[in-house]
Amino acid sequence: MAQAGVEQTETMTVREAIRQGLREELERDDDVYMMGEDIGDMGGVLAVTGDLIDEFGEERVRDTPISEAGFVGAATGAAATGTRPVVELMFSDFMGVSMEQIMNQMAKMRYMFGGKTEMPVTVRTTEGGGMGAASQHSGTVHTWIAHFPGLKAVAPGTAESAKGLTKAAIRSDDPVFVFENKMIYEQQGEVPTDPDFTVPIGEAAIEREGSDVTVVATQRLVGESLDVAEDLAGSTSVEVIDARSLYPLDTDTIVESVEKTGRLVVADESPLSYGIHAEVATRAMENAFFSLDAPIQRVGTPDTHVPFSPPLEDEVVPDGDDVRDAIDRIA
Amino acid sequence: MSGYDLESVDGRIEALRRMLTIRVFDETAGDRFADGEIPGFVHLYIGEEAVGVGTCAALAEDDYIASTHRGHGHCIAKGLDPEHMMAELYGKADGYCNGKGGSMHIADVDAGMLGANGIVGAGPPMATGAALSIDYQDREQVAVGFLGDGAVAQGQVHEAVNLASTWDLPAIFVIENNQYGEGTPVGKQHNVDNLSDTAAAHDIPGITVDGMDVTAVAEAVGEARERARAGDGPTIVEAETYRFRGHYEGDEQVYRDDEEVERWRQRDPITSFKERLIDRGELTEDEFEEMEAEVEATIADALEYAKEAPYPEPSEAYDDMFGEPVPEIEEFARQAQAQTDGGER
Ligand SMILES: Cc1ncc(C[n+]2csc(CCOP(=O)(O)OP(=O)(O)O)c2C)c(N)n1
Prior knowledge:
The structure holds two protein chains of two kinds.
Chain A: E1 9-13, H1 14-28, E2 32-36, H2 52-60, E3 61-63, H3 68-79, E4 84-89, H4 99-106, H5 109-112, E5 122-127, H6 142-147, E6 152-154, H7 159-171, E7 176-181, E8 188-192, E9 205-208, E10 213-217, H8 220-232, E11 238-242, E12 245-247, H9 251-261, E13 264-271, H10 276-288, E14 297-301, H11 310-316, H12 320-330
Chain B: H1 9-34, H2 49-57, E1 64-66, H3 72-78, H4 82-89, H5 123-136, E2 143-148, H6 155-166, E3 171-177, E4 180-181, E5 184-185, E6 206-210, H7 214-229, E7 235-240, H8 258-265, H9 269-279, H10 285-308, H11 327-341
Parallel strand pairs in B: 1-2, 2-3, 3-7, 6-7
Antiparallel strand pairs in B: 4-5
Helix pairs in contact in B: 1-2, 1-3, 1-9, 1-10, 2-3, 2-7, 4-10, 5-6
Bound molecules: thiamine diphosphate.
């Protein structure tokens, strides 16, 4: 959904949308700079940062040593002392290496210090299976961050959201993690070009209206759910919501939709047990229990790691077929 | 020893054969990856063969190694079988990890290979742990942790070295300084000239050797092994080497020029070792060609084997999550099995 007052758009990929968002924020605010492994001359291992180093130089597009604990910790200290670092963590699995700085420092500093500091740090990282990258490069770990008090987590499903949320994250005085699914970098969409366009953190987007079933999806499963909804049009009217902000989560939009359709599928690539699915489902039940006409369905990765071999990876990584099966079970 | 002690002629010939096997294996893997037959990422060891082979030549067969994301060479140096390695690269059921791991995670703990590793710097703590088991049970082995120059920046590496040195564990840390961490040159990642200088912080020996010379590596690791076995704790061995290919296959290598690559190629560890053996009358050109033909046949067979081998069944995705049964996982497996039995969706 376009923001009110935003007219001009351009077609671009998710990758280009994120890069444009980064560029605009680097231009807008001198206190913003980026750091990460090979984000400079290499242009980022998944080519997101591209040639930003040519425009902004090594001071503001900084290559780091391979030391996640060190530079995530440094970003935390830097954010507490007046600058606005944007960190790229190549693969979200590597977050494990820097988890101490995230959980005990970044998340707790403002609270524990009685509000005596801001924490304007952005952490961008990639998630997801689908490219044979095996267990240590395919994880979807955003539940960890969304679950942890003091951290914000967003996970865009469209190019527009990707740009708008990246910009909102950088402008936020709180720690915001932007989870980019690596299989949608090439996905195209219409993206507002106004440098003041942002997507407010905490607002979901209704990507397609429908009246029979609500699918609350994230990341790659947003696009795949939209395809399913298109296929089913005529028989089942599917409403597709891009949750896109995981914490804070837009309860109102989800609840209103469930009140209208009476049926809910939650589609998110993270492991099923104790995941985002459970949170979305619980909020729907707490607020719209008597509107529900069928059991809530979950689509996600079974509680496994992502295996390397193509038939095994296909088995565990959820896709549009799984969303369709879930809709079939209740519609 | 490992069956290819460099003190003997046979051992030297075997070391040359293993280096060649690594080279041909990796060239084949690179080609098959370029053809789209191998999924995921592939990081080749071409140019660095002397480090893995020199290290493993100095080890006993039951010593442990913990590897990196660039692990094919370590596997072959340690004696793993190219057939099951290649099958793993193809994601086949009887690859070393039953298709779960792929190139970056080949492992065979029974063979003393604690795994290639997708996490940079995660090998050294594994080696420290293996050394702890050895020490705890008074066994006669040592454990080697391989790491790249980039990995030296990881906190967990320094924690592992500190633990091993504080407890005098029989560990050896072999830094493969191939001059780059992905696209970032070593000079932009560290403020020391020699990465072995980091040993000083732990009051253990740190030595930098020519990593293009298999005997120099073997000698250094041999001494480190004696020290470790004598109860004197770990050593850091830095081997200066070079990767002839990109960081991963498909890397455009914008960060270095052809001239630099060419300069290092002049020091090819296989060619130079072969020439030394020929000079010393331990090998003839004919014998080398014969060896080459054998190695190529071995790898061709491995490739054939890997291509023909069956993929795992979808329900195998749920194997090995836990040692004991867990109802959630069993339910997923049951559903997958039902789907297979019921035919395609
Ligand atoms: C903890 C972690 N951070 C980042 C990466 C991504 N990565 C894979 S290989 C690599 C470079 C490693 O360089 P080095 O240790 O020198 O080994 P080399 O590739 O040169 O053999 C990086 C940054 C990773 N796999 N793990």
